[in-house]
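Risk register update: the risk of archive-format incompatibility is retired. Evidence:
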Amino acid sequence: MVNLTDRVAIVTGAAQGIGAATAERLARAGAAVAVVDLNVEGAQKTAADIVRAGGKAVAIGCDVSQSDQVTAAVAKAATELGPIGVLVNNAGVLRDNLLFKMSDDNWDTVLDTHLKGTFMFTRAAQQHMVEQRWGKIVNVSSVAALGNRGQSNYSAAKAGIQGLTKTHALELGQFNINVNSVAPGFVETDMIRATAARQGIDFEAYKEAAIKRNPMKRVAQPIDIANAVALLCSEDASFINGQVIYLAGGPRT
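Archived output:
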């Protein structure tokens, strides 16, 4: 059983989807959670849901691509909740397009949000973990790290997150800090619905095609990802470090 009593967690991109489910799951395990998102109203809703369920949470607005905002967000979380022990780097956006149509801005926005944001939050939060000689960092990657048509930016960012994960595991392991990554496949979220809409595809048909391809004959829900993240944040996973776990209902190479 995952037990994070007296731990303080930061979850980025926690206004909805995987991030919200993860924040709520960590709170149920006993953690006080800083719910971080650019969408402040959404973050406040997630935090309120946690408090309503008997947990402790604070909402923090932050653009994860801006260094000063990241530093301020981590400082605020530590001031209001205590030293940071758990970090889930989940914040992300999509700007899908084929290579010849992809703009510099499409590229920069996705890389800055996913990859730079993960780096900066880890850099800021690890100071608290080093002092405590305890920490758990989980970075959300994707099966798109293996390549996906129309996602040069997203695939590069998610592959980069896997590289950061392995590097930071090597650097921080000596301080009893575990750094791992989860790489979901198709997860039924508002972001995926928006992707289908942009492509002019009926979502239910889009989902059904994914179900047919999946060995388990279903698609993941946000809680499926949140449960795996929670495990990696627990002492049950104390010797798992620098790993990328594909959460896609089947193997990935």
